[in-house]
Amino acid sequence: MGIVFVIFIHLVAIFLISTFFALVSIILTRVLSKVENRKRKMFFAGIAPYVGLYSFYIFGLFGAILVSEIKNVDIGIGDCWYVPIKGNCKLTFIDLEEQSYLDDDNKPLIESVAYIQLTEDKLFGKTYDSLYFSYNMTTKDFQKYKSELELLKDNDSPKLNLKKAMDFYIERRNEIAGIYFTIVGVISALTSIIILWILRKLIFKTTERYD
């Protein structure tokens, strides 16, 4: 799915969730609040979920895209997402986990990467076709193997510790930019709270004559 379509789906989902909370908030406010200021309270209760959730999403999305550009880590929405490994080497997915490939300097090395392991300067992996591979990111030497034993012998390695490619992507992304995404989330939440606070002040001030 394209990123525009994914964002559209997110916006629709937020609208439905906001509508549910707005209806519940309006009913509770109508039942529990005193007659004084009731109209203003109900109006705020109805609009607050939309403003709060949409502002949180928009600021969060903008911040995540900014982090993605700065740290060169894709945020994981849309048709294609990737994570850098070392230098210009990266792991990329297109639409599905199975449609993955490894490339260096924009030159594809191998497709359908199912499992992967990163050492200091080497990558080991296995494809969905049960083909094993190794890649030395320093010497740019790429090799394919028919079995795990063949790979281990050629690389003087006692054993493999392969991870699912998607798990590797998530761990690597969090390692590179996880703290920054968390900061973006906190800032977005605080910004939404401030906007709601300002909105509440404005509503209770400008609609006073209707009570």
Q: Any idea what the shape is?
A: elongated
Overall strand count: 9
Straight-line N-to-C gap:
48 Å
Mean pLDDT: 88
- Which strands sit side by side, in order, in the main sheet? 8-7-6-5-9
Helix content estimate? 40-55%
- Unreliable runs: 207-211
Question: Helical stretch count?
Answer: 4
Notes on the structure:
The structure is a single chain. By secondary structure, the chain is of the alpha+beta class. It has two domains: 3-74 and 177-210, no CATH class; 80-174, no CATH class. It contains four helices and nine strands, in the order ααββββββββαβα. It has helices at residues 3-32, 38-71, 148-155, 165-206; strands at 80-86, 89-94, 96-104, 107-111, 113-118, 122-127, 132-136, 141-145, 163-164. A hairpin with a 2-residue loop joins strand 1 (80-86) and strand 2. Helix 1 (3-32) runs antiparallel to helix 2 and helix 2 runs antiparallel to helix 4. The longest helix is centred in the last third of the chain and has 42 residues, at 165-206.
List the helices and strands and how they pair.
Blueprint: H1 3-32, H2 38-71, E1 80-86, E2 89-94, E3 96-104, E4 107-111, E5 113-118, E6 122-127, E7 132-136, E8 141-145, H3 148-155, E9 163-164, H4 165-206
Antiparallel strand pairs: 1-2, 2-3, 3-4, 5-6, 5-9, 6-7, 7-8
